[in-house]
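yo

u said u wanted the structure for the complex thing, so here. seqs first:
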Amino acid sequence: MHHHLILRVVTKMLVGTIILFALYVQFHGDFSPGGGFQAGVIMSVAFILYGIVFGLSQAEVVFPPWLVHKTMALGVLIYGTTGVFSLLLGYDFLDYGAFSPDHPSHGQHWGIFAVELGVGITVTGVMVGIYYAFASRPPPMDDEDW
Amino acid sequence: MIETFINITLFAMQVLTALFIVRSKRLFSVVMLSGVFSLLTALFFVALDAVDVAFTEAAVGAGISTVLMLGTIALTARTQKKTAPTGYLPYLVVAVTGAALVYGTLDMPSFGDPMAPAHQHVAPEYLARSVTDIDVPNVVTAILASYRGYDTLGETAVVFTAGIGVLMLLSGLRRRRDEDDVKIVKNKAAKAKDRA
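structre next:
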């Protein structure tokens, strides 16, 4: 899409804002709508938009496929580790009271923060990974082919 | 009053979009219209005060799904194949199924009924306890991440597994196709040698 000047300029302006919005949805999920799932999707949209407008090869420079694959597993690992951590401290699996025994609701805040982060990371990785898998197959298409 | 009007308008637009999807032969417009359908669904969820669900629907249904379906079109075909006329049997099946579904909804509690079983089971307890237990204003997040932490761990694992599955299917096929290409080239070269 090298001839779409407006698309390229608007994309450059939007990508940063989209990532910022994803981070807001991720870390403000306790107070406003949203959470890990939505934030992960919004975060991946930033990379997918970049890939659509500037080409897959450019997107793969920013977020290389090997890193995407690691990201997919890392989120589940963070989530699972949160549970194992509370287990090791003598609490139930995924009982966030373990993070702050004197103040259980603070522990809940930390626990929710950790598992939502895990969810967001996995969803980002999976969405970008699936997009890469689809987009890397066919030869690039002309605009008129649609 | 105004709420009923908004709901009916949104439903009418959804039905209209669905009819256009059925009528259209160009898959590009079908994909775009299904994105519109998702967006209308998200608006409907907003009207129902289910902002978390609306958020997800707008991001996943209207955003990611549309992009992935476009990717699929790029891999396969741009237009729908012509199908032979099938007579009236499909219409009959659709009509009977629709009638059965409408009949099924007659037993359901009426729209927005506060006495519905879904609002009487554990929901009041969550609403009452989450303030002291978890101290998070968004009860949806409290239920999703804390009370139902196991479920969410399972969901994350499902997303992970789905991603792995798609990656294995698509990248595996690509490798095989490359090998096939190499074979074809070699066969051609061998044949050319035989001729010479």
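The two ends of chain B are 85 Å apart (CA to CA). Chain B touches chain A through 48 residues (CB under 8 Å).
cya
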